Amino acid sequence: MSAVTGPPSTVDAAEVARFSALAAEWWNPRGKFGVLHKFNPVRLAFIRDQAAAHFGRDIKGDRPFSGLRLLDIGCGGGLLSEPMARLGFDVLGADASDKNIKTASVHAGEQGLAIDYRATTAETLSEAGERFDVVLNMEVIEHVADLTLFLTSCASMLKPGGLMFVATINRTAKAYALAIVGAEYVLGWLPRGTHDWAKFVTPGELDAALAAAGLSITTATGVMYNPLNGRWSLTSDRDVNYMIAAAKPG
Hints:
The protein is of the alpha/beta class. The chain is built from eight helices and eight strands, in the order H-H-E-H-E-H-E-H-E-H-E-H-H-E-E-E. The chain has helices at 13-20, 34-55, 81-86, 98-110, 122-127, 147-156, 173-186, 203-212; strands spanning 69-73, 90-95, 116-119, 132-138, 158-169, 216-226, 231-235, 241-247. The protein has an eight-stranded mixed sheet with strand order 3-2-1-4-5-8-6-7. The longest helix has 22 residues, at 34-55. The chain is globular and about 40 Å long.
């Protein structure tokens, strides 16, 4: 008799457990997620500027993205969900870790922000028929169990003319040296074991997966860290960290 199997899942249980154990650290800028706090300004500006150009919004206005719905998948403690809500997006923050969602919900409540946080997965939301103008996949795809299923599920939730953002790490020797050996073992920016080099995604692999999901890349950029001023900035070098924006046909 064959074994009974459940539906395909993008959840990597070991990854969820790892980040659940760190849930209380999300909002400590000097804690285990301190590197994300430093990274936030450059990725927020990238999302804001690309979305404004795509949807024809004036970022100088109050809540410029009012009327648009956004999914922050793999939202963690809400480091991106909260500023997106302040910009006017109707935000759904989703994470497979219940502990992360509880942390995010409590913090948003303390800030007086109305964010729909749910402990769920991309495929569950997709099957439920959820639809969004913007989907954020920021520092997530290198932690999922099935990249193709994950991106297909996310793309299916984009409305026609919608925009998806992805930030991840390239699978190069340079990325291994900087993102794993340097960041985790030498500098201690991240807990050891946070990343698995084999699960890093090359730009070519990401391009192909997004194309298969029906999306076309509109913008691609590298991101680099300057240890002299402690800041991240955009660069043409995509050997380590990189971000893309991809659109669904209208």
